[in-house]
Amino acid sequence: MNQAIIIGATSGIGKEVATRLLEQGWRVGVAGRREQALAALQESYGTERVVIAPMDVTTQESVEKLDDLLKAVPTPDLFLYMSGVGYQNVELDEEKELRTVRTNCEGMVRMVDHFLNYVKNNRDYSASRKAHVAVITSVAGTAGMGTAPAYSATKRMQSTYLTALSQWSRMERVPVVFTDIKPGFVATDILNPDKHYPMLMDKGKAASHVLKAIRKRKRVYVFDWRFRVLVFFWRLVPRCLWERVRIVRS
């Protein structure tokens, strides 16, 4: 039976992915802030299949919660970090910006690094059985967006951090592979449902793309094809021109 730990599985794509893995026969450890949502998932699939850990990744106590998960779901094949917040924040509300940094950067570093040290010191992992670490970043991280400064910057940080960790794993001979999963606009709680977003994707289709990226162990996966084209052209725009682009507020 394959095993996974998903950080951020109480709503949106995270919940959908956890459900899909359970339907495929996986045993899953799930974490998030909404304890009732975690308990509902466990009730649906049973305590043998679902282990829960209510946690807030912005606190140091979340490390202890992760250790509890690792005791119950030892040597997981997949570690998926899906916790994230983001805002359109042209007003530059400082608390919104800092909350985004704490969750997307501090929380990710805390959880992923702790798991990597666990892998490094666990003899059950080897060259023939590598752990798989996947993080949901965003196409927003490919270019700074003035409507969402902290969100864009934190997603860029996540991608850069994964690149550094991939190099680190080879230097330290840690048996792990990484996947940077970059969605476009997905209809989840992060987005304001009263606003219009181009090329919006429902969370079910987004979950299918996430699972495809995981199954293929893609190093970087942008979805869907429309956003792959968009990202390609974004990267061709010189910084001096990009900074003069007026992004319409949706």
Describe this structure in words.
The chain is of the alpha/beta class and 250 residues long. It has a single domain (3-242), classed as NAD(P)-binding Rossmann-like Domain (Rossmann fold), CATH 3.40.50.720. Helices cover 45% and strands 15% of the residues. The chain is built from eight helices and seven strands, in the order E-H-E-H-E-H-E-H-E-H-E-H-E-H-H. It has a seven-stranded parallel beta sheet, sandwiched between helices. Helix 1 (12-23) crosses helix 6 (203-216) and helix 4 (94-120) packs parallel to helix 5. The longest helix has 27 residues, at 94-120. The radius of gyration is 18 Å and the shape is globular.
CATH architecture: 3-Layer(aba) Sandwich
Briefly, what CATH class?
A: Alpha Beta
Instruction: Kindly state the number of beta strands.
Output: 7
Low-confidence stretches: none
The name CATH uses for the topology is: Rossmann fold
Order of SSEs: EHEHEHEHEHEHEHH
Structural class call reads alpha/beta
**What's the tally of helices?**
8
